[in-house]
User: What shape does this take?
Amino acid sequence: MLNYIVKRIAATIPVVIVVGLFIFGLLFVAPGDPATILAGEQATAQDLAQIRQELGLDRPFLVQFFEWSGQVAQGNLGRSIFSKQPVTVLIAQRLEPTLLLMALTMVISVLVGVPLGVIAAFKHGGRLDTFVMSASVLGFSVPVFVVGYILAYVFALQLGWFPAQGYTPIAEGFWRAVRSLTLPAIALSGVYSALIARTGRAAMLDILSQDYIRTARAKGVSQWTVLFVHALRACGVPLLTVIGMGVALLIGGAVVTETVFSIPGLGRLTVDAILQRDYPVIQGVVIFFSFLYVLVNLVIDLLYTFVDPRIRY
Assistant: This one.
């Protein structure tokens, strides 16, 4: 097990290199120039050239990339072009609301998606199955920001149950922090719940046709026990897989959701950095998200051994 964990962590190194090369190259060819934003509209060509030289933006692509890679290897993600703060500090300041939002979204999605998938499989071909699958298609189709605006209008502006924008830090109360993120988490969980429900239904349909399920029913085991104990445990591996893969949806959705609800998290930091062409911040956040995604999937792989004893590393 330990050797497997070490190998998986070591495997993140080439992943980070490829991601870094991709995002670095994308920013290199993207339109816009941070020197223009820093210098202002009245800047001359000489002023722009001087700023670009100070920032190192006038050097060749490979020189900039290898210099940046060497800093990342030492744990240094650079400094923000505009705030002059270390990128690691900016990420640490914005980390709490994003992680709590992702965790709350994942909890809501699992609590909603798994039962819906199980029930849809049990009522296969019926009206309930059709309703669940239709709701899943709707969850995939409606953009997160549309759902977010609707939820904010109804439950924040009209009913006043939740705050419309902002974030309350955990230091001021855990449940106050959860309440401030409830609407964003519900908006973000739509796509994730639909993905889990569809995957759970497909896996459950296959499991319910197995001989041991028919044997359990023949012995008089209750439908609840058959569905949520025997069959659901057998579906654990595909469900864990889709939960791990769905982290990418959470990361991408967090950028939109935090913008809609004015949450000071990593998603909002990314949007602000893109608008300002703050390259070190963009690169640092993308690298952090890539590492987070790999780490979550490593945890998912380790959970396989608890769900299915036949899996060993």
